[in-house]
Known about the structure:
By secondary structure, the protein is an alpha/beta fold. It has helices spanning 29-41, 55-66, 102-113, 133-141, 176-186, 204-211, 247-259, 278-285, 330-339, 359-369, 403-412, 435-441; strands spanning 11-14, 20-24, 43-49, 70-73, 79-84, 96-97, 118-122, 145-149, 153-159, 168-170, 191-197, 215-220, 226-232, 240-242, 264-271, 289-298, 301-309, 317-318, 343-346, 373-377, 380-384, 391-393, 396-397, 416-418, 421-422, 445-446. The chain has 2 domains: 13-27 and 244-446, Alpha-beta prism (UDP-n-acetylglucosamine1-carboxyvinyl-transferase, Chain), CATH 3.65.10.10; 29-242, Alpha-beta prism (UDP-n-acetylglucosamine1-carboxyvinyl-transferase, Chain). The strands form 7 sheets. It has a 4-stranded mixed β-sheet, with helices on one face. Strands 2-15-17-16 form a 4-stranded mixed β-sheet. Helix 2 packs parallel to helix 3 and helix 9 runs parallel beside helix 11. The structure holds shikimate-3-phosphate (S3P). Shikimate-3-phosphate is lined by residues 30, 103, 175-177, 180, 202, 327-328, 351.
Amino acid sequence: MTPPASAAQPLTLVAPGPLAGTIAVPGDKSISHRALMLASLAVGESRVSGLLEGEDVLATAAALRAMGAGIEKAADGSWHIHGVGVGSLMPPQAALDMGNSGTSTRLLMGLIASHPITATFVGDASLSRRPMGRVIEPLSAIGASITASPGNRLPLMLRGLAPALPTRYRLPVASAQVKSALLLAGLNIQGTTTVIEPTPTRDHSERMLAGFGAKLTTEKDSDGARIIHLTGWAELQPQMLQVPGDPSSAAFPAVAATLVEGSDILIEGVGMNPTRDGLFRVLTMMGASIDRINPRTVGGEPVADLRVRFAPLTGIEVPPEIAPAMIDEYPILFVAAALASGQTTMRGLEELRVKESDRIAVMATGLKACGVSVTELPDGLIVQGSGGQKLPGGATIAAHLDHRIAMSFAILSLVARAPVTVDDRAPISTSFPAFLQLMQALGSAELMA
Ligand code: S3P
């Protein structure tokens, strides 16, 4: 899925003037994965509109097809999914290629763990470095047997078990992927699977499982931990579903408009789930001008249009407890912090070290190369802001197969005195294939070498 290094296509963006206009960002990546998975387990045809057609989601679709689901794009742009029913996934004939996608890998491992089938998971160099022990441990406890590469990494082979055992599992890391893997496994387990999350993470799985008719309840314990119970075996009903726009994609044009003087943009239909909207809350605390217009519900999720206008930012201490609600947005927040007045401290971010790249180290190196003064901490970053002055820039940044690193430095280039080049734009297609087109629609321009 990843082109060879020799095919790398660099990207340099500049802003000849203020950003302006109205855009809609593509469908939410997390919700798109889940929609394909649950529809593949319902009996009958589901229809999904607004599905993200990024490489990560297409990897999930290919894997589900290989296990018997019918997944096709219709002429009107919606996706029609013929589910096989919980318990009826077929063994895939070849290894499942997960590309760059941790979400595909971890959620599908959960799905397969309670089916009587065996699957091999492979991925690109970035995914093959990421830890899978966090799902291997609880899925082994329900009876799956997993043979992984050294360090609990991909490639790995998973042999599911049916009937598998119900479990009660307290998440040791705040991870929606681990939570979702267990809940998906629980669909084909008789009895109650319970997941306890001390720190709430994105709740798309819970919302969508309930929407498809699974028996799911949540409660809070006295410490504020969320306790989620799912009762199997589940019978899922096919659904008509619309996927809201991805707040993690909207983050890039939103920060761009905040930083480029005179900008005023509208981003339509952005998911505003409180377990995902942390970046917009933090930017607002720093002085950003972000209005949530026309709040509504789409596909069981809160959604709004975002009007974002240029505003000077002030550095703050970002509360660490907000991290799960904006875990993918720290790279672009680091860029926003680089333009703020004063210092921004961001901590509690050890999870960033095991994303598509080590996002603390890679961002620290890239920001320094662009002339920003940063201090790297084991669990975060302290950024000294320029007080609104353009950054020196003039660097070429290695994207390290990480879409959010590539997009963050493409945005930084808009506010640099000398343009910044990202060495390879290809990773952007994993989550936001229309990034360049939409940034151009807002008035930024690609600088050709
Ligand atoms: C995701 C959960 C998060 C996030 C990832 C998508 C999901 O990962 O970083 O991009 O869809 O469940 P973790 O579960 O590792 O925090």
